[in-house]
């Protein structure tokens, strides 16, 4: 049996998911959508303050899972605390602003 060692210094430091989270968070001014605190992209799962993809309308409540319109970034802890709760009126206003910054909605 031949085993190759892998030099992790050549491995990519950020996967597609991490790049996507970072891109979305840019439009949230680098802050958690739910609590408003700064996101730290050096933290990784399962750290409770690691950035995670949050479905604005919970999938369990009929929200789509694979559309950019339903994705915001939140701390893992905040995401889990929100659970299946529907967004508050304040979160809806904030959501529209974030989607506008991302170019996904337009004012008429």
TrEMBL record:
The protein, known as: HNH endonuclease
| Segments for region (Disordered) | 1-23
Species for this entry: Azospirillum thermophilum
For this UniProt record, the keywords arranged alphabetically read as follows:
Plasmid
Gene3D superfamilies in UniProt: 1.10.30.50
């Amino acid at each position: 049996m031949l085993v190759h060692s892998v030099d992790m210094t050549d491995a990519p430091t950020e996967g597609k998911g991490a790049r996507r989270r970072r891109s979305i968070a840019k439009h949230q001014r680098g802050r958690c959508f739910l609590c408003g605190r700064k996101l730290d992209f050096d933290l990784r799962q399962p750290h409770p303050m690691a950035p995670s993809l949050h479905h604005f309308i919970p999938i369990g409540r009929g929200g789509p899972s694979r559309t950019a319109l339903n994705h915001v970034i939140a701390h893992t802890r905040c995401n889990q605390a929100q659970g299946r709760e529907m967004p508050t009126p304040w979160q809806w206003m904030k959501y529209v602003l974030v989607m506008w910054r991302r170019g996904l909605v337009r004012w008429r």
